[in-house]
Design brief:
The protein is built from 6 helices and 12 strands. With 209 residues, the protein is of the alpha/beta class. The strands form 3 sheets. Strands 1, 4, 5, 6, 7, 8, 9 and 10 form an 8-stranded mixed sheet that branches. Strands 2-3 form a two-stranded antiparallel sheet. The structure holds 1-O-pyrophosphono-5-O-phosphono-alpha-D-ribofuranose, uracil (URA) and magnesium ion (MG). Uracil binds at residues 80, 133, 135, 192-194, 197, 200-202. One of its GO terms (cellular component) is cytoplasm.
């Protein structure tokens, strides 16, 4: 069974309150999501491999560590995934970035793929897949199915909020993929929205409500 890590941090809690607030306007939502991602990134990137080498300081040479080649890779589940990937790129500008376009059909709640562009040598990279909302789990499971087809082995998933239903579905479909999230919410409503949640993440980032 894959691990579920709820990233428990006072600043994450504080920023999540702003993100959940229906009165938060989208420019603030975008900025605070980015700041929250910097904090979530600290735990989510803890497993990354580094390679040993040397660096010349102004005083002497020392053994030092750097990200490997090829570098890790961030994958955004469009469109809301970009809200997390923007912040992840801030802390790891060396990362390659891929995009998977998935939209959830509002009637069936099943994801439909409309775009896929992934970095070269993805099978050799450590991959962080990002989507702010793990609701039924359908979009994340479909994204991981696609990444597995492309040979990705080393993979973790980051969300901002998760529903218990989505965690269970993801753990059962992909038991080897560690899950990181900013909070585990109560349940889904009849339309597949996370309760208490924050609404539609894509709409709140891009002001399309
Ligand atoms: O776990 P699930 O039940 O699959 O739901 C979660 C998905 O729904 C949202 O995307 P949406 O389909 O609204 O697309 P968007 O990012 O373009 O707004 C969200 O960003 C996830 O991708
Ligand atoms: O609560 C939810 C569920 C799916 N997608 C969202 O953006 N929000
Ligand atoms: Mg989506």
């Amino acid at each position: 069974m894959s691990t579920l890590t709820v990233i428990d941090h006072p600043l994450v809690k504080h920023k999540l309150t702003i993100l959940r607030d229906v009165a938060t306007p989208f420019p603030t939502f975008r900025r605070v999501l980015r700041e929250t991602t910097w904090l979530l990134a600290y735990e989510t990137t803890r497993h990354l491999r580094v390679e040993s080498g040397t660096v010349e300081t102004p005083l002497e040479e020392m053994t030092a560590h750097s990200l490997p080649n090829p570098a890790p890779c961030l994958i955004s589940i469009l469109r809301a995934g970009n809200g997390l990937v923007d912040g992840l790129m801030d802390v790891m500008p060396e990362a390659a970035v891929g995009h998977l376009g998935l939209v959830r059909n509002p009637k069936t709640l099943l994801p439909e793929e409309y775009y896929c562009k992934l970095p070269s040598e993805i099978e050799k990279r450590q991959v962080i897949l990002a989507d702010p909302m793990l609701a039924t789990g359908g979009s994340t499971i479909a994204a991981i199915d696609r990444l597995r087809e492309k040979g990705v082995r080393n993979l973790v998933f980051l969300s901002l909020l998760a529903a218990p239903e989505g965690v269970e579905a993801l753990q059962s479909a992909h038991p080897d993929v560690p899950i990181f999230t900013g909070a585990l919410d109560r349940e889904l409503n009849e339309k597949g929205y996370i309760l208490p949640g924050l609404g539609d993440a894509g709409d709140r980032i891009y002001g399309t409500e």
